What does this fold into?
Amino acid sequence: ATVKLYDGDTKIGEMSGKYCKFEVENPKLWTAETPYLYKAVIECAGEIIEQKVGIRRISVSSKLEVLINGKPIKIKGINHHDTHPTDGYAISDDYIRNELKLMKKLVANLLIIR
It folds into this structure.
């Protein structure tokens, strides 16, 4: 495939191969408030596909915060059904605390494995 990347009508890059990676100098970063999109034109076997793409920077701060375009985000919520194996919907504080500790431990183990 051949991939061309455009900023408006200006071509800013072109690559061919199975995988393509572009480095854009001073990119206009996509946010929900300012959704700037570039245009990628993909050509392969006579087929042409135009795709709008946004660029954003995702990183982790020294305080272990997830940053999108340099700004920290909050991830809220958990998929947890509050039921006890024997007590049903009557859940003690100790049981909830132990469940949360177990979930945090499992997430920490997942982060180490990656």
